[in-house]
Amino acid sequence: MIAVQELTRTFDKQVAVDALSFRVAPGDVLGLVGPNGAGKTTTLRCLCGILPPTRGEVRIAGHDLLGEPIEAKREIAWFPDEPRLFDYLTARQHLEFSARLYRVEDAAERGARLLEELELTEHANKLPGELSRGMKQKLAIACGLLHSPRAVLFDEPLTGLDPRGIRGMKATIRRLAADGAAILVSSHLLHLVEELCTHLLILARGRAVFHGTLDEVRRQFAASDQPASLEEVFFRATDEAAVGGQPAGEGKVD
Amino acid sequence: MRGLLYLITRSLGNRLRVQFRRLRKPQYLIGTVVGLAYFWFFFMRPGSPRGAGAPDGPAWGGAAPGGEGLALVESGIALLMLVIAFLVWLLPVQRAALGLTEGEVAFLFPAPVSRRTLIRFHLLRAQLGLLFTALIMVLVWRRRSTGWEGAALGLGGWWLMMVLLELHRQTAAFVRTWLADRGIGPWRRRGFLLAGMVLWVGAEALWLRGSLPELTPELLKSPEDLKHLAGVVTTDGPLGWVLLPARWIVRPLFAAEPMARMGGMAAQLVLCGLFYLVLMRLNVPIEEETLFRSQQRSQAIAHVRSGNWHLAGRKARARKPWFRLRPTGAPWVALCWKNLIALKGFVGSRFFLIFLPVFLFSTMLPLLSQGGTVAAALAMMLVPLSAMLLIMGPHMLRCDLRQDLQSLDVLKPLPLRGWQVLLGEVLAPALALTVLQWALLALFAVLGTVAGSGEGRVPKEVMTGGLPLLAAVGVFLPAFNLMSVLLLNGVAVLFPAWQTSLAGMGGRGFGVMGSQLLLMLGHLLGMGAMLLAPVGAGAAIGFGLVLAGVPWPWSVLPATLVGVLLLLGELAGGLLMLGDRFERLDAGDEPVL
Q: Are B319 and A88 inside 8 Å of each other by CB?
């Protein structure tokens, strides 16, 4: 569903993402982790068409993002760490706007259902400025899910959410995966990744340090017979990459 | 206080350093050079109205009046100051607050810093801005023959005046809060002030009656009589007494003799000291209001930096869309729909509240009076208004890609081609401008019909053109507006860093001024270039038709249609080209702030 081949992105002479390749199948949840500046957000921005890749190929639901951008983008939902909304559109108007852009014919029913599910119905006529951080996040999710995307990209989805919002967000991610969407979650919160993700991609200095299932990563980075925790995995993988200057666990990288 | 001084000096140093570092980027450097050149050309160039070698004049820049005239002007300005000061006590409802940023609130409020030190910090930090304003005022209103000493005195006078106004504003806010906390709210306060005002006006009337019994309307026929009366009223009696301190305060700006100016400055200093004492002594709560205003200020800055200038300083309101957006159909219409909603924020109901009565009144008045000259005057007034709207309108209505450029993260993942995004974005302002101009055109037609043509009325050539001319202009306007708005959006697409840097600079400084001037110049040149072929082709066809015997007004319409078709062709090409550029636009090119 999401297929990335040799994705490279440079800013001036600095390489932010270096020859990254991976796939996310329908129903899979891929956790994208790495230290600050590892290239996680740049990768996501390349996958949703905000940044053009310097080299490489991105395919969404079989469509080349560069060659068939419209078809590819119709299948994507992108949720940045900070919900980006229009100051002067109400919650309901945001849904109407999204419906027209993605040509969602039954938008009225779907929109109403999403508002209901996300507990936004009573706030439907409010502007983003009148909504709390969590409600804004919910509204962004409602807009993104209106067209039933097959590839969903989350950047730090739990930022600024209260416990109820966190629970709701986790449930949304699980439901999307169960419905067959390919999901990519970038986060510093390792417990979230551990809880939700089926696969893991560790980035360091723009390069893939590891890509595989959670069980595989625990086994590979285990110090003894006991499987390593994700925190131990993270530090070992990224420390090795920092010390060696080379990606660790290359054998596992697709 | 040392820590706060450190904060002021280091912040200033870092700010200057960032501003100088910005100049490494061509967009800032060019803008700043052009802005400085513009300022020099108009205010400092030898031979300019305010530059060296210009005739000497009084501080306010008008013709130098004699002693009585000068005193009158001084009294007039003093009276204006007094009115402003009175309004500062009468109108505001806000509580006292210090002008701190969110960061300053977060660091200083919980820190072991006394309240008085915070007030001193607020006053001290404001000095740089006040001094800069004073410097600009001295440059703009400077005298030629006073030399460096005079300039220094002028700067001192203006600076002290600014300090005094700031201290007075702050003191008034403190006293208002102090009164409010003791049960004297805004309305009771206003009642006291207005009662005092009424008493004072009564005293003035009594004094006038007693001192000038011979005063009758018949005696005030000439301007000289009026001038004499104004002089007497503003120097003697109750008004004269009230005006006395205000006159001292403004004296440094008017007096020619250094001693008189220094005397005025001494008066300014004494008043500054008094206000300062009140501020230090009056213990009113300032924390909550300061926090609230710091948040408001941060929001306003964020709006300006994101290009939403119209949202800065006011609360966004939910607005109804102009039409219902169906979920099916051309997707780019959604962008136009969104921008039309935003347009309501730009124009607002206040605009219609003003425009519609003016429209109706100016239409009905001549019809009712059956007078041709009033209608003609109004009709001809619409010509410069329309011209201004034609040129400046697209600069003012920014509800398009210029506003959304900071939201590239939202626009770029949309399943739309670049040209579709551009088309959807530019349609709303072009549409709004066209409707407004059509309304003005209709008004012109009504007024022109009422006025008729002839000497002192609407030019005969225009009136005889009638319907075909009106139709030609009406057809031309949408294409022209689309071109104009597209050109400005083209700048945003071709030079996004420059566009965002304009917003990033927060709308102040020589850099912004220069950049805006360059933008206007480029816009005019771009329009000229795009109109060249359509106007040339239209003119050729029009002349051809006239030569073939078609009456001239009727030849204009087909000529315009051909020109508009050509222009639309150019616009389609431009849209595709800019759309392609938009698709390759790199959202990673962030401005250095």
A: yes
Question: What is the phi/psi pair of residue A153, to 5°?
Answer: -115, 125
**Per-residue pLDDT, B423:** 95
Token pair for residue A216?
A: 């595989």
Say whether B409 and A84 touch across the interface (CB within 8 A): yes
CA torsion B444-B446-B451-B457 (nearest 10°) is 10
The pLDDT confidence band at residue B61, using thresholds 50, 70 and 90, is very low
Place of tokens 């006025």: B451
Integer Cα distance of B361 and B331 in angstroms: 41
Cβ-defined contact of B318 to A127 (cutoff 8 Å): yes
Judging contacts by C-beta atoms under 8 Å, the chain B residues touching residue A49 are: 412-413
Instruction: Report residue B141: phi and psi, to 5°.
Output: -105, 20
Q: Give me chain B's average pLDDT, please.
A: 80
Residue A51 and residue B321: Cβ atoms within 8 Å? Answer: no
DSSP B213-227: TT--GGG--SHHHHH
Rounded Cα gap, residues A227 and A229, in angstroms: 7
Least confident span in A222-236, B12-26, B492-506: B492-506
Indicate if the pLDDT at residue B172 is higher than 70. Answer: yes
Query: Could you list the residue range(s) of the whole structural domain that residue A138 is in?
Result: 82-148
In a domain, A139, yes or no: yes
For CA atoms B304, B309, B314, B318, give the dihedral sign.
Answer: negative
User: Could you identify the residue written with the tokens 């959202």?
Assistant: B587
* Interchain contact B14–A (C-beta under 8 A): no
CA distance A153 to chain B (A): 11
Q: How far apart are CA B480 and CA B475, in angstroms?
A: 9
Residue A51 lies in a domain: no
Nearest to B413 among A48, A99, A105 (CB): A48
Residues of chain A with pLDDT under 70: 223-225, 241-254
The per-residue pLDDT for A253 is 44
Is 90 exceeded by the pLDDT of residue B421?
Answer: yes
> One-letter amino acid identity for B192?
F
Identify how many contiguous H helices and E strands chain A contains and give both numbers: 9, 10
- pTM of the predicted structure, to 2 decimals: 0.72
Chain B residues whose CB is inside 8 A of the A53 CB are none
Does A115 reside within a domain?
yes
Interface touch A88/B345, C-beta < 8 Å? yes
**B158 has pLDDT over 90:** no
**Cα angle B220-B225-B229, degrees, rounded to a multiple of 5:** 95
Alpha-carbon B304 to chain mean position: 14
Check residue A248 and give its pLDDT: 41
Q: Which amino acid is at B121?
A: F
Q: Select from B403, B398, B587 the least CA-distant residue to B497.
A: B587
The shortest C-alpha distance from A64 to chain B (Å) reads 13
**pLDDT at B365 (0 to 100):** 59
Total domains in the fold of chain A: 1
Shortest CA distance to A146 belongs to which of A114, A178, A118? A114
Q: Give the CA-trace dihedral at A87, A91, A92, A97, to 10 degrees.
A: 50
Confidence check: pLDDT of B169 > 70: yes
DSSP string, B85-114: HHHHHHS--PPP-----HHHHHHHSSSS--
- CA separation for the pair A173, B265 (Å, rounded): 70
CA distance A226 to chain B (A): 43
